[in-house]
Amino acid sequence: MEERDIYEPVYAFVRTVPSGKVVTYGQVADMVSGVSLTARQVGAAMFVAPKDVPWQRVVGAGGHLPIGKRSPEMKMLQRRLLEQEGVVFLPDAEDRVDMARCQWLPDASGPAQGSLFEE
DNA sequence: AAGTTGACTATTT
DNA sequence: AAAATAGCCAACT
Predict the structure, then answer these.
(1) Which residues are A23's β-sheet partners?
(2) If you compute the radius of gyration of chain A from its CA atoms, what whole number of angstroms results?
(3) Cα dihedral A61, A88, A56, A51 in deg (nearest 10)
(4) pTM of the full predicted structure?
């Protein structure tokens, strides 16, 4: 129908994110490298995403929720949905996901996943 | 057709 | 730690 379906690959990827795990916008843009996409485009895609897409499992780099800058209510909804799925939030931070534990590493069946995260 | 905007991110103040 | 800057590129004015 519409050309907006260029986001289909993004939706397809997000749909594969298991409950209790999250990915970052940048990570999605990187995984779907088959198409020219930036983290911003992923955000735009999520905004118009179909209901069968678990948009809440896509968070900002470092585990924060950039959505809150525009829609505080939506941010709280996202946090609630994630906690309901078992995603752990850092106790110290305002609204930050414990990425070291909850970020989804697709097909990371290697011996070590070596999570490198700095703040 | 040209300018603005934004569910981003990395860098720099 | 928080705010401003600079790239990003499709969608919207």
Answers:
(1) A58
(2) 14
(3) 150
(4) 0.87
